[in-house]
Amino acid sequence: MWKWLHPYADPQRAYRLSERLQPWFTLLALMFICVGTVWGLAFAPSDYQQGDSYRIIFIHVPAASMSMAAYMGMATAAFVGLVWQIKLADWAAAAIAPIGAVITFIALFTGAAWGKPMWGTWWVWDARLTSELILLFLYLGVISLYASFEDKVVAARAAGILTLVGVINIPIIKYSVEWWSSLHQPSTIRITEESTMAPEMLYPLLINILGFGFMIGAITLVRFKAEILARNGMRPWVRELATATGAK
Amino acid sequence: MNPRRKKRLTLAVALIFGVAAAASLLLYALNSNLNLFYTPSEIINGKHDTGIKPEVGQRIRIGGMVTEGSLSRDPESLHVEFAVHDGAGGSVMVTYDDLLPDLFREGQGIVAQGILMADGKLQATEVLAKHDENYMPPEVAEAMGKDHQKLDYGAQQKAGAK
């Protein structure tokens, strides 16, 4: 059933594929983020209650949703790596972790900067904010665990187990605003029913979420390629690649 | 699937389910303690599941809507008093001696932290504005009759502020 996937478990092929995909992800990311951000910041109408301050939503929400999506991507890779012991999956998980940490930090920072003028405080220990902070610590834990073993097979196993343990935090972040009373408002974008946002604000937001997704994809490919090269430094194809690019 | 992979698959799935079960039990046990605030009716009648009422002198947070027409200001100082109510019909008076956030309006959701006084009032040390998940342009809000008026300061208060 998965036969067609097997050739891509070869580092060289995976490297080539990432190299081919990377410009497309970069291009799409630039396009979507430019359109979404300019539309959102300059052309979308201001909000009836928050005025122009709400516009930070065009960065905050894409960053927050992608911080969770990146974690799910990392967890899937870690799961495949643990069960089938495919090294490429381990490297992919290791490539995503720092990106997820940065995007989580962006979500927390923009949230705090938004909270100060609107709520009147930078930070509250409510369920949503606290669980998102735990997500940042999970990312930092995975990064440091992967970095602290010389043997990368052992490192990936340790980091993978922590990643799987942390998966439980994702539904907690998602539903924290529904299960408990919090200062953070419930979700605006609904999948099953109509979103509680005017369409001329919603479209740039959705475009930016897509754009952030492509951006994370593009940066992941860069880091994934670097990880493949770092782990295969002794292979002939890497040496050939190095001499070929060095000769240019 | 070979037996070694099968074993690892079982272990990984067991790990995920085990952590999920532990976390759900933990969160279930903590349940109402994870709420950021008491609602006014919970202060009056106690929490739904445990019936625990906050004691006088306890430092708590209250969350609810500012009752329309309940806001009264002291023209000489920053002292304000307003009622906070919820959908269940409870209402608690809040007193506050500092600057209110910009989004504070009558009919607006707020979260106030403070000490519960013997007369049932909450002496707040911090008032935070809560906003909802609805975003719309002002014209749409006006058409829906949801336009929020900024707090109207009387001539007396404006004179007092100078």
Q: Would you write up a description of this structure?
A:
Chain A has 248 residues and is mostly helical. Helices cover 75% and strands 0% of the residues of chain A. Chain A has 8 helices and no strands. In chain A, α1 runs antiparallel to α7 (199-231) and α2 (57-84) runs parallel beside α7. Chain B contains 4 helices and 6 strands, in the order ααββββββαα. Chain B has 2 domains: 3-34; 40-161, OB fold (Dihydrolipoamide Acetyltransferase, E2P) (Beta Barrel). The mean pLDDT of chain B is 82. In chain B, β2 and β3 form a beta hairpin. Classes of the chains: A mainly alpha (248), B alpha+beta (162). At the A-B interface, α2 and α5 of A face α1, β6 and α3 of B.
Radius of gyration of chain B: 23 Å
Count all strands of chain A and give the number.
0
Helical amount of chain A: over 70%
| Quantity of strands of chain B, as a count | 6
Q: Mind telling me the C-alpha Rg of chain A?
A: 20 Å
Strand content of chain A: under 5%
Q: What's the structural domain tally of chain B?
A: 2
| Average pLDDT figure of chain B | 82
Described by the principal axes of the CA atoms, the overall outline of chain B is elongated
Give unreliable regions of chain B as ranges.
none
Sheet-strand content of chain B, in percent, reads 15-25%
Indicate the CATH topology of the largest domain in chain B: OB fold (Dihydrolipoamide Acetyltransferase, E2P)
Give the terminus-to-terminus CA distance of chain B.
80 Å
Cytoplasmic side (chain B): 1-8
InterPro entries (chain B): CcmE, CcmE-like_sf, NA-bd_OB-fold
Main location (chain B): membrane
Extracellular side (chain B): 30-162
